[in-house]
Design a protein that fits this description.
Layout (H helix, E strand, L loop, with lengths): L1 H23 L4 E17 L5 E2 L1 E13 L2 E15 L8 E16 L10 H6 L2 E13 L5 E2 L15 E18 L5 E14 L15 E18 L6
Antiparallel strand pairs: 1-3, 1-10, 2-4, 3-4, 4-5, 5-6, 5-7, 6-8, 8-9, 9-10
Length: 236
């Protein structure tokens, strides 16, 4: 009888401790992997005399080292366009591109104390990000004009098809939505990104003193995939 009573006490303690530990983790857990989908509004500032807004789509896989330190692997596809065939230079282009991007991302929550502060709790999801991109430029012959309207004998050089490296620099904000366990299960990401071309052929023209600069306003959604683990402080 004594042994039976002792066993009951032992198992009661075990279950109580397990319940306390489990409850303590609510709000601290997060998924290590996300899948992201989204789109962007693009403008390319290059060697053409005017710019034109275009759109692109992207898909990404994200590894979350912590809820606020993220590594983003992204594929983008869309178009970049600018210029006017009737302009003085005659330069016009439309680039149907594909790009591969890797970025590291640091959110403010990793380095600030946001406990007990409504303002800091809002700021924690603000982030900076940079890395490296690789763009595959694809300009069809009918989608580019190189001949000047003022000096017909002058033709702007460049390549219709090329592959280039670029450096993305991004600032953004991640709106986190939580499940019943207070884990971020759904996120909306809004960002502004400037991509610095390391050569000068995103628009198909190699002219001027500066390389091309590609600007993006983007919005996307991210879905938690799994690999749940715990953080050192409450995520919510």
């Amino acid at each position: 009888m004594t042994n039976l009573f002792s066993k009951k006490i032992f198992f009661t303690l075990i279950f109580s401790v397990a319940a306390i530990v489990s409850k303590a983790q609510i709000g601290f857990d997060y998924a290590q992997y996300d899948l992201g989908l989204g789109g962007a509004y693009n403008k390319l500032y290059g060697d053409a005399e005017s710019t034109k807004g275009t759109v692109s789509a992207h898909a990404s896989f994200i590894y979350n080292e912590t809820p606020y330190v993220n590594y983003v692997f992204e594929v983008q596809a869309g178009s970049l366009e600018g210029g006017n065939r009737l302009a003085a230079s005659g330069r016009y282009f439309k680039n149907n591109f594909t790009a591969l991007v890797f970025r590291g991302q640091l959110q403010a929550g990793e380095i600030i104390d946001y406990s007990g502060s409504t303002l800091m709790n809002a700021v924690k999801n603000l982030y900076l990000s940079t890395g490296v991109g690789y763009i595959l430029n694809n300009i069809k012959d009918e989608n580019i004009n190189r001949v000047s309207n003022t000096t017909p004998q002058y033709v702007t050089g460049g390549l219709n098809k090329s592959n280039e490296l670029y450096i993305p620099a991004r600032i953004g904000y991640e709106f986190k939505f939580y499940n019943q366990y207070n884990q971020p299960s759904f996120k909306v990401d809004v960002g502004y990104q400037v991509n610095f071309d390391l050569t000068d052929n995103m628009d198909g023209f190699t002219a001027g003193a500066r390389n091309d600069t590609w600007v993006q306003f983007s919005i996307g959604v991210k879905f938690a995939l799994g690999g749940v683990t715990s953080y050192r402080k409450s995520v919510q």
